[in-house]
Amino acid sequence: MEDSLRKALSQKQAAVDAQGGAVRELKASGAPKDAIDAAVQELNALKLDKASIEKQLQAALTDGNDNALSRDAFRQALVNTLERRLFYIPSFKIYRGVAGLYDYGPPGCAVKSNVLAFWRQHFVLEENMLEVDCPCVTPEIVLKASGHVDKFTDLMVKDEKTGTCYRADHLLKDFCKEKLEKDLTISGEKAAELKHILAVLDDLSAEELGGKIKEYGITAPDTKNPLSAPYPFNLMFQTSIGPSGLSPGYMRPETAQGIFVNFKDLYYYNGNKLPFAAAQIGQAFRNEISPRQGLLRVREFTLAEIEHFVDPDDKSHPKFFEVANLEFLMFPRGEQVSGQSAKRMVLGEAVSKGIVNNETLGYFIGRVYLFLTCLGIDKERLRFRQHLANEMAHYAADCWDAEIECSYGWIECVGIADRSAYDLRAHTDKSGVPLVAHEKFAEPREVEKLIIAPVKKELGLAFKGSQKMVVEALEAMSEKEAMEMKATLESTGEVGFQVCTLGKDVTITKKMVSISKEKKKEHQRVFTPSVIEPSFGIGRIIYCLYEHSFYTRPSKAGDEQLNVFRFPPLVAPIKCTVFPLVQNQQYEEVAKSIAKSLTAAGISYKIDITGTSIGKRYARTDELGVPLAITVDSTSSVTIRERDSKDQIRVSVEEVASVVKEVTDGQSTWADVLWRYPTHSSASVDE
């Protein structure tokens, strides 16, 4: 609708301009008054039509802006609550804080701890994974091999006068969004151009990004000063290991490399058997150019990563049938390219149709869906988006992101990638240690092996100092490339050959390399395993969980809105509260006795013996997301209140800890216990 209105407005503006020109010509030529009056009347009618279209377009844009305003108001209410109740706060607050760094307070730590405990249960225990814990400080050579030293960059621009730095793509994105949302005068073609830029923003080179910033006259947001051309900025925090400064290192940008470099030992620990998975939870560090969006883009964060090593020739999974019937929102690349929306798909069908590359990748997509929905993520605001071809690394077989919708839009919270054998091969090449697996044959097999034998003497004479790079490139050829080279050499005696590390083509002659195939008997197959990698941004998941769990409801008097977090008991920071109804020595003794039994049962609780009204105490703990509240109103029995329904049951003092444990451990639902115990209703304890 917006596009058609912009087109109509552009056409109407052209008509107004043309009619205005006609009126001026009539007046200049001394035309009769009747003719001029008729032309002016037509001009006024066109202006009215234009004003009507502008009004419709403004209404269409305002709908989106109103939604944005309501999202902003919701987010502000949420963030105020989170900071006031100490879920998280800006780090070093008394020194005005540092962008992109946050401290988790007591309830935030408890939520995070519960999320990670469930992650371990759902993945590490369920799949019998090998958990490791590697250092945050990583030697440069490791990250050189992985490609991070050369390629882990974002494009940055600087305010040419103040030196303030900005992320180039963010400036262009903000400009395009503001134009589309607020500028009525842009044509349909211009609007389409801006939308296209937003769609391909991640693919723009430094030159293209700089060209657009210049073309649109984008300046520094704070000062309106001109900006420098975009240039790459490495996002890793650099350090040196030891006092000499001769051993450079970095704070790790991900936890995965620690697993890859330990593959050989982990493979041995696992009995030299594939498949197996290793897991790690730990801190990662990225020196973001302009952190924003609270917990979603920070400079230090917790990652939980899995590296599932599998035979590249067999990516089936024995437990895939357990998730094959799950149905949820999927957004394959075909739908994205054709401008369609995400649609509900059955996971088994997506794998069988080849939309998802293989069963193991599909299995982890299913397990991630179950993990997120069990935490309390709304399944209607969760989708799995497939990477477009231009988003994927050249070595990746397939990649999907679990994206969660929040007030900032769709946010990538989990990446699930089939990274092929890239990482293990990269570390094998750099370290010289073969990170490979073995498959022993029951009977020896006769296989045809490709033999590429570079003649180093001839290559040395021809390429001198570049000889090593040419040799490595020749040895790295695929069978198809090698056989094509052999055929060309036999027919013409020389062939052009691209050496990527030199960045140019060289001429290879028949004397420089021998290519042949030999039949050999092999007792085992040696291969580099493929890696399926689910990578979880824990802070992002927790923030989205806060948004999906937060709501307000009116107080009993109706004079204020009360904040509530509907956390599932699984992740709630405190499982229950204990309140003596009134300040009374006997009730307080019962409350302390219940507290002891809760501690013995391993249940987190908060006891409140203040004289505040019970309604206010309920409201305080609802705001922390505490699912159950125990009110001591007699010495023999107590009431248990459920947070969201506000329903209450009466339970004996002796049973209360076991009932709470049953519900908070997930053995029973609140509905299950509601019919087993008498309900309780009292005006004195209602909010």
What does the radius of gyration come to? 32 Å
Biggest sheet details: 9 strands, mixed
Tell me the total number of β-strands: 28
Structural class: alpha+beta
Distance between the termini: 47 Å
Strand order within the widest beta sheet: 3-10-11-21-16-15-14-12-13
Considering the chains and any ligands shown, give keywords for the structure.
687 residues, alpha+beta, 41% helix
What does the model show?
The chain has 687 residues and is an alpha+beta fold. It has a 9-stranded mixed beta sheet, sandwiched between helices. It has a 5-stranded mixed beta sheet with strand order 25-24-26-27-28, with helices on both faces. The C terminus is likely disordered. This is glycine--tRNA ligase. It catalyses: tRNA(Gly) + glycine + ATP = glycyl-tRNA(Gly) + AMP + diphosphate. InterPro entries: aa-tRNA-synt_IIb, aa-tRNA-synth_II, aa-tRNA-synth_II/BPL/LPL, Anticodon-bd, Anticodon-bd_dom_sf, Gly-tRNA_synthase/POLG2, GlyRS-like_core, tRNA-synt_gly. It is an enzyme of class 6 (ligase). Belongs to the class-II aminoacyl-tRNA synthetase family.
Task: Describe the structure concisely for a colleague.
It is found in: Cytoplasm. By secondary structure, this protein is α+β, with helices and mostly antiparallel strands.
